[in-house]
Amino acid sequence: MSETTSTSTGPRTAFPLHPGRGRFNAAFFSLLGPYLERSLRTQKSRVYAGLPRAVVELGPGVGANLRHLPPGCTLTAIEPNRYMHPRLEEAARARGVRLDLRERTAEDTGLPTAGVDAVISSLVLCSVADPVAVLAEVRRILRPGGTFRFVEHVVASPGTPTRAAQRLVRRPWAWTFEGCSCERDLAALIREAGFASVDLRRYRVHTPLLPFNPQIAGVARA
């Protein structure tokens, strides 16, 4: 039996939530979720293995990662797009996850310092307003030895067709996907964020969404 609590006292996203785009993204990720999950399942299974029974997720969207949580898990969900909330709540009930849903940004979770064992994200750091601030917030809320586990898409290597495609579509891509950038060097940002250790792998998925294909997955330890 799942339970849901909800708070909405946090700051709004710096990329203003537009009702039309908010609803579009909720519908898009509900529809494309199974396809994206097939592309990312191997990496998610690796980095999300052995999660504790209480997890914080940045930008859980409509709940794509619920299947990777242990049975009976409590999920603190930091999700500023309120149009995602109904689908996320429904998915949590279906999987028996206790949901603490917070309409806040990842830069300011409102959670206590050094009170969290695990933070997860997937396809989120691309769209936050300030990824450096988000990584600092993750470090703040993690206990010593706690883990940040991530699966993210990143900037392609210079001079490649994928990099050219990322430059070409960057403005419409960001407008459509609530500020998402396909040009961030998130690997460097995570390595420079001050974690005690970072185990990170680069890989490539093969989808028609060419700017999305270069990816990283890994575990950073506080």
From TrEMBL:
Any single GO BP term: methylation
Name under which the protein is recorded: Methyltransferase domain-containing protein
Keyword field contains Transferase: yes
Alphabetical UniProt keywords: Methyltransferase, Transferase
GO molecular function: methyltransferase activity
Organism expressing this protein natively: Leifsonia williamsii
PANTHER family recorded: METHYLTRANSFERASE LIKE 7A, METHYLTRANSFERASE LIKE 7B
Methyltransferase type domain sequence ranges: 57-149
SUPFAM superfamilies associated with the record: S-adenosyl-L-methionine-dependent methyltransferases
InterPro entries attached to this UniProt entry: Methyltransf_11 (IPR013216), SAM-dependent_MTases_sf (IPR029063), Thiol_S-MT (IPR052356)
Superkingdom of origin: Bacteria
